[in-house]
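Why do we bother with holo predictions? Because pocket geometry can differ from the apo form. Keep that in mind while you read this record for zinc ion.
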Amino acid sequence: MERLRGYQLLPLELTTGRLRRSLISVALSALMLFQPRIAAAWGNEGHTYVNRVAAQKMPLSMPLFLRRAVVEIEYLGPEPDRWRSPSELALKNSQEPDHFIDLERVSWLDSLPPTRYEFYRKLYEKRAATSDHPDDYLPERVGLQPYITMEVYGRLKSAFRDYRQLRAAHQPTDAVQQAIIFYAGWLGHYVADASQPLHTSIQYNGWVGPNPSLYTTEHHIHGQFESEYVRANIAAKDFASLVKAPERLNDPFADYIAYLKTSNSLVEKVYELEKAGGLTGKGTPEAFEFTTHRLAAGSQMLLNLWYTAWLESAMPVPEHGPARPAAPPPIPPRK
Ligand SMILES: [Zn+2]
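The structure, written out:
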C-alpha cells in the first residue's frame, strides 16, 4: 500500500462519482508501472497535525503575521506529497528522494557531509568501490532527507533576514511574509517525515535481511502505521501538550542528524508494535504513547528550527563565505 500513497494527491473536491474512480484507477496504474519508492509519511492527518501544533506553539518573540498563519502552515504540511502525480513527472521524480534517508546505507561515513553535492560525491565513490548491488548507493536510493531540510531551512532564514531588512527600511513586507509562511510550512513536511522511524531506514516497508524476531515482511506496515493508525486513533490535541517552548539549536545540521538517528533507533519498535497488534484497529495504549511522542518530536524539531532561523536571521552575514571546496577532477571539454 505504501507504494500507492499517491492517491492522496487527487483534488479533494473529486470526492464522489465516476470521474474520481476513473482518475484513481489511472493514477494507480501509472504509479504501479513506475514502482518508485513512495512514502508519504504520516499521511495528510499527521503532517497537518505536526505543522498545526508547531504553529500554535510559536513564542511571542516571533513575528505576529507568522503566528497568525496557523491555517496556511497546516495546509502546507502535506504539500510535498501533492508533488507525486505522474502528470508532473519531472517534479515527482526529482523530489521523491527528499522524503527519506536510509541511514544504514551511510553507516560507513564518519559523519554526513553538510552539503548535498559532497554527499553525492561520497556516495558515487562508494558505489564505484562496491561490487555487490552498487546501485544501492545511488543518492536517489539512499535518500536526501537532511539535505532538502537544511535547504528549505536556509530559504526560511534568508527570507526572515529580508523581512527584517525591509522592516528596518520602512518598506512593505507583504510579499516576503507570504514567502516566509510558505517556507515555514514546507519545511514542516520534511521535519515530520524524519520523526517517522520508517523514513530513516532500509526497513521502510517490511523487514529485509536476517529476521530472528519474525517481524512482518509484508509491504504494508509503513502506511498502516503512519496513515491508517494515525487517521483512526490520533488527533493534534493528543500530543500538543508534549511540545514545549522552542530552543535555539547550536548547530542545526548536526542537531537534525542526531534527531534522524534517534528516529532510526526506533525502527524496531514500530515492528514490535505491529507484531503485537498495536497498529490494527484501535491499537494499544503502547502504540498510542509511541506514536504521539513521535509526532510531538516532529513538531518540537520544527518549532526549534523556525525559532533558530528567526534568531539567526538577525546575525550579520559574513563578508566572505566559507572557502570553496577542493576543485573536483577536471571535466574533459565537450566535443
Ligand atoms: Zn514525505
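The pocket of zinc ion is lined by residues 40-41, 80-81, 99, 189, 193 (CB under 6 Å).
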